Amino acid sequence: MLRSCLSNFARIHRSSVQISIRNYAAPPKRFYKHAGVISSNGRYEITLDSRKLKTPRGLPFYVESEPLAIAIATEWDAQKDVIDRSSMHLTALSSTVIDNPNSLQKHDMVNYLVNYINTDTVLFHSSEEIELKKQQSQEWTPIVEWCNKRYEINLASTDSLVVPTFEPGMAMNLSRYFSSYNTAALHGFVFAVDTIKSIILTMACVDRYISIEKAVQLARLEEEFQQGHWGKVEWAHDVQRLDSQARLSAAVLYIYFNTSNAFVKEKISL
């Protein structure tokens, strides 16, 4: 009797409920043997065998830094049987600069970075967990103090949810700093900040005050604290941490490659 009821329920349930299955496009298979770099008119293009790489919008893909071009070619050479574009951060950043899908201008990114600092992760300490707040103060405060001294600003930590306001002079100093970078490098800054939710930690990495690993560890401080109390899924949290390190590393490299190239050009023209 019970078996019959269960069988009828299952049959009625199947007939009344439509199961929705989401189909994802399979990643493209690797179609080339070797990725290379060619130089033309001061620009560097990526070749996949005899084909020149294009952006998602079909525009010619190029960069103005030879080390960056080599690094991008290495990303393509590192692909195995299929092409995993989600792991090719330098390629994605370069394509974004060329295609500019959001029509961002330099001042848009400068304003975004300057305004982001009001909500920077390392400025907001816990108001409930005493041990966490103590750890945040020990780990984050030295970084904030370094940032204040290095950029002539006056940031202060808070345990309130109210977003603090800062004097106009501080915003002007930060705006002047970010405006000194070219558009490509600013895309790197935005990518880094979106990855670790901290402009302060990003600036510390770019200035080589802290390492990539340290920046990610500081950005994940609260998450790591909670995992210490409640445990963690071994592989999942490790993958998240390593993915953040890969993204931040790519962003900082992108800033370096574009900045050093502009610096060399400026020195040559003197």
Q: What brief labels describe this structure?
A:
270 residues; mainly alpha; ATP12-like fold; four-stranded antiparallel beta sheet; 6% strand; ATP12_ATP_synth-F1-assembly; ATP12_ATP_synth-F1-assembly_N
Molecular structure report:
There is one protein chain. By secondary structure, the protein is mainly alpha-helical. Strands 1, 2, 3 and 4 form a four-stranded antiparallel beta sheet that branches. It has eleven helices and four strands. A hairpin with a 2-residue loop joins strand 2 (about 45-50) and strand 3. The protein has helices spanning about 1-15, 65-75, 90-100, 105-115, 130-150, 170-180, 185-195, 200-205, 210-220, 220-230, 235-270; strands spanning about 35-40, 45-50, 50, 60-65. It has two domains: about 35-100, ATP12-like; about 105-270, ATP12-like fold (Orthogonal Bundle), CATH 1.10.3580. It is found in: Mitochondrion. Its main location: mitochondrion. One of its GO terms (biological process) is mitochondrial proton-transporting ATP synthase complex assembly. Belongs to the ATP12 family.
